[in-house]
Amino acid sequence: MTGAFEPKVRVITVPKTSKAEESNSGEPIDLMAFGRALAERRAAYEARNGPVPVPRNSGKRRTASKKALLRAIAATGKKW
User: Fold this and answer.
1) What is the pTM of this model?
2) How far apart (Å, rounded) are the C-alpha atoms in residues 75 and 69?
3) What's the sign of the alpha-carbon dihedral 12, 16, 18, 23?
4) In order along the chain (80 residues), what is the average pLDDT of each group of 10 residues?
5) CB of 80 within 8 A of CB of 73?
6) CB 70: neighbour CB atoms within 10 A?
């Protein structure tokens, strides 16, 4: 058991592809402006390519509690 209680070497890695200091200079992000820009980009994409495909969960692996919750929601006439 030699080395069992030796401190582990800590390594800090920085992604080589990320340039956080270049893309965001530490300025706060205005979420309203971000949301508007995102909506504009999505509208432009959809104008060129049609609706954005959104994958849906098939539900094959749902737990019993999730199934019960969805049945209770459906019983109220609402949609999940």
Assistant:
1) 0.42
2) 10
3) positive
4) 66 65 70 95 95 85 92 86
5) yes
6) 14
